[in-house]
Amino acid sequence: MSSYNLTHLAQLEHEAIFIMREVAAQFERPALLFSGGKDSIVMVRLAQKAFAPAKIPFPLVHIDTGHNFEETITFRDWLAKDTGSRLVVRYVADSIKAGRAQEEKGPNPSRNGLQTITLLDTIEEFRYDACLGGARRDEEKARAKERFFSHRDEFGQWDPKNQRPELWNLFNGRKNPGEHFRVFPLSNWTEMDVWQYIAREKLDIPSIYFTHQREVVNRNGVLLSKSPYITLLEGEKYETRTVRYRTVGDSTCTGAVESDAADLAAIIQEVASARQTERGTRADDKRSETAMEDRKKAGYF
Amino acid sequence: MTAATPVHQHTDQHYLAMDLLRFTTAGSVDDGKSTLIGRLLYDSKAIFEDQLEAIERATEQRGEDHLNLSLLTDGLRAEREQGITIDVAYRYFATPRRKFIVADTPGHIQYTRNMVTGASTANLAIILIDARKGVIEQTCRHSFIASLLRIPHVVVCVNKMDLVEFSEARFNEIVAAYSEFASRLEIPDIKFIPISALHGDNVVDRSPRTPWYQGSPLLYTLETVYIGSDVNHIDARFPVQTVIRPNNDEHHDFRGFAGRVAGGVFKPGDEIVSQPSGLTSRIKSIHGPAGDLEEAFAPMSVVMTLEDEIDVSRGDTITKANNPPNVTQDIEAMICWFSDKKLVPNGKYIIRHTTREAKSVIKGVRYKVNINTLHKLEGDTEIGMNDIGRIQLRTAVPLIADAYQRNRNTGSFILIDEFTNATVAAGMIL
Ligand SMILES: Nc1nc2c(ncn2[C@@H]2O[C@H](COP(=O)(O)OP(=O)(O)O)[C@@H](O)[C@H]2O)c(=O)[nH]1
Ligand SMILES: [Mg+2]
Q: Which pLDDT tens digit goes with each residue over A140-165?
C-alpha cells in the first residue's frame, strides 16, 4: 500500500474543511446554525480547524424554541465562550408575540415548524447569505437528496426537483440578491462517523447524550420527557426510566432511548448495533411520510 | 439473506483504519440497480428497522407484493408518486474493511446528466447488464461516460443470472461482446461478475450455482479494489482557497494559504512557484487538521506558510518548478450539457475551475458525440440537454490547468449561466 492513503474519517474531515473554506471565500455574510446537538458541535470543531490560527470567521446562530433541554442551552453558551465566537440567539416566542407565528394546539404543541419562520426572519435581519448546517444525508430520505451547496430562493424555499448538479469539488454559490444558500459540510458523514469523530477529538457534549434517570411518558412509542409544555392524555402517566438522547431537538418532539451508555465507547457500541435510525426518535418526522421534505421546502434546517 | 460481518463487530481500531470507496451504479431501467443497492445496504446492516418498516408500509399501500427496495433511495414525494428517480441520491454503508459512498443515478430522461454527476467523484462504476438482454445501446452509453469521466475501475455485473440458468456460456458471450466494445474506450481496469441481485448470488458470498466462476463476489471486490494509485501524486498543485490572517497579537505575522492539495506532494522546505504570477518562494510550514505536517498530498485540506511575502490570493495555484501546469486562456475540452437552454455559439459563460472563477466565451463547437455509437458528428454543433461534445473556450484570465486525463482536480470545470446562475455544463480539459 502506498503511504499516500487517508482513512475515511480523515477524508471526511478534509472534505468538510474544504467546504467551510469555500463558504468563507464565496460568501460575504455566512453564519453557522448551531443547535447544541452533536452534529453542530462537530461543525464548530471543524470550523476551528479550517481557520486556525484565526478565529471562526462567522457567528453561531441559534433559533431557540424555548422548548430546548436546559443542558443544551448551558452547553451552547459555554461553547460560544470557549471558542471566542459571537453567539446570536433568536426566539420563536418573540415571533409568536409579534404575531408572525402561531402556537400549535394539541397535547404536545411543537414549535419545530415555527422555527422556520424565526430562522428566515433572522436570516433577513442579519442579511446572511450562507447558513452552514450540520445535516447529514444518512439522516432522512429527503436529506439524501441535498446538495452541499443548497440554493434557497428569496422566500427561503428549497426546490428539490430543480437543484444545481454538483460535480467534482466545484461548488457554484452564485445567487441573486435576497437569495441565500444552506451549506452542509457533513453531507457524507453518517451517525457513526460523527460519534467516532467526537471520540477521536475528545469533544465535550451535553450531558443528556449519556445515560441518566428521567421522568418520561410513552406516547406512540416515543419516550417524551416530562416538561411544562406537555399535557398528559387520558391513561398516560410519567414513569422514571434510565435513558439517554440520540439526537437533541425540542423536548416536545425528541424521544429518549432506554440506555445505560455512560461514556463515548458505550455510545459507539450502541450506535453500531442500533436497529433504528436516530430520527426514529423524532416525533416531528413521524407526522407523515414526507414530513421532512415538506418542512425543508418551506425553509427548515 | 446471508449477512456480511455485522457492523457491531467493528473495533474502534478497525473503524479508524478504514478507507473510503466512492462508487456509482449504471444500468438501464429494470436491470436491477435498486435491488442490488438495497441488497448491499441490507446485508451490511445499513438499513434500519424503522426504514424497513416504512418501506413495508409504503409497498403495501402501493399494492405491490414484494418489498420495493427502490423506495429506500427514492425519497422525494414526486419520486414516490411517479415511481421514478429524479436525481442522484447518495447512500452510505460500511464493512469492516471500507466505508462506501454510493451515488445512485437514475435512468430515464436526464440520465446522462445524472450519471456524469455521480461519476465525477467516483473511483469505481458498477455497470449492470441484464443477462437475457446482453450488451445493449445503454451499456455502451454508460461505459462511454465512465471512460470520459475517467473512472479508474469498472465492474460489469451480469445480473439476473437466475433467469439464464446460471449459464457459463451466456456469461462468456456477454464478456466477449463487452470486451470487444470496451477496447475502443480507455478504462484501465474492468472486471466481470455473474450475479443475481434478487437472490444474492455472488453479491456477498460466492454462489454455489456458478461453480465455473473463479473470481470474487461483488462485495469482496468492492472491499479490496486498489485505489491508492487513483490520485495524482506527481504534479504538485495547490489551488489557494483563501488567505488566513489572524488579527491577534499571538499570530501577528501569520499569513497562511488555505486550500486542498489537488495533486503531487508538498513538504516544508520545497521551492514553489505561484501561478499565474510566476513568483517563487519556499514552503515554511504546513498545517493540517491534526497539527503540523511533514508532507501534504491530495485530497488533504491544509494551510501553507511561505518564507517570502509574495502576493498570492484565491484562485492562484501554488506549484513546483518540475512538471509545470498549463497556464492558458485557450482551452480545448469535452463538455456535457446540463441545461434545457441550448449552448449558445459564441455565448459567454462563467467558468469555475479549481478555485478560480472567470468569464469565458465559446469559440467553437468542434463536434458532438453520438454517445450510443461513439461516432463524432462533425457537422452537428447544436449542443442541448444531455449532449456531449468538444468545444474551444477562451477565458478572460489564464487558468492553471492540466489535462483531465492527468488530473481530475485540475482538469475539470463547470460552466455557469451568468443570468440564471445555473450550472449548465461539466467540462473536461483535453
Ligand atoms: N429474476 C431476477 N429478477 C431481478 C434480479 N434483479 C432485479 N430483478 C427484478 O427486476 C426488476 C427491476 O429491478 P430494479 O432493482 O427496480 O431495477 P432498476 O430500475 O435498475 O433499479 C424488479 O422486479 C426486480 O425484482 C435478479 O437478479 N433476478
Ligand atoms: Mg431503480
A: 777 888 899 999 988 888 887 778 89
B196 touches ligand 1 (CB under 6 Å): yes
Q: Where are the beta strands (DSSP E) in B115-224?
A: 124-130, 153-159, 189-194
| CA pair distance A183, A204, nearest whole angstrom | 24
Q: Is the CB of B160 inside a 6 Å radius of any atom of ligand 1? A: yes
- Report the alpha-carbon distance of residue B219 to residue B229 in Å, rounded: 21
pLDDT of residue A187: 96
Model ipTM value: 0.90
A 10 A CB-CB count for B108 gives 12
Cβ neighbour number for residue B172 with a 10 Å cutoff: 14
The CATH superfamily label for domain B12-224 reads P-loop containing nucleotide triphosphate hydrolases (3.40.50.300)
Mean pLDDT of A15-43: 96
Segment B270-299, tens digit of pLDDT: 999 999 999 999 999 999 999 999 999 999
Calculate the CA A230 to chain-centre distance: 23
Residue identified by cell 434478487 is B198
Cβ-defined contact of B301 to A190 (cutoff 8 Å): no
Query: d(Cα B91, Cα B37) in Å, to the nearest integer?
Result: 9
pLDDT in tens, A87-110: 999 998 888 888 887 877 776 667
Ranges A225-239, B149-163, B229-243: which has the least confidence:
A225-239
Number of structural domains chain A divides into: 2
Confirm if A66 and A93 have CB atoms less than 8 A apart.
yes
Q: Which helix (H) or strand (E) holds A291?
A: helix A291-298
What is the C-alpha to C-alpha distance for residues B65 and B83, in angstroms, rounded to an integer?
15
Place of cell 479508524: B16
| Residues 6-45, chain A, touching B (beta carbon < 8 A) | 6-15, 17-18, 21-22, 24-25
Q: Which ligand is nearest to the CA of B114?
A: 2
Domain span at residue A279 reads 206-285
Instruction: Report CB contact under 8 Å: A172, B246.
Output: no
Cell for A179? 437569495
Instruction: Judge contact between B113 and B386, C-beta under 8 A.
Output: yes
Q: What is the mean pLDDT of chain A?
A: 86
CATH class of the domain whose range is B326-429 = mainly beta
User: Domain extents for chain B?
Assistant: 12-224, 237-319, 326-429
CB of B163 shorter than 6 A to ligand 1: yes
Q: Does some domain include residue A2?
A: no
Residue B113's pLDDT is what?
Answer: 82
The ligand 1 atom nearest the CA atom of B68: 16
- Kindly identify the ligand whose nearest atom is closest to the C-alpha of B27: 1
- Please tell me the pTM assigned to this model: 0.90
Give the CATH fold of the B237-319 domain: Elongation Factor Tu (Ef-tu); domain 3 (2.40.30)
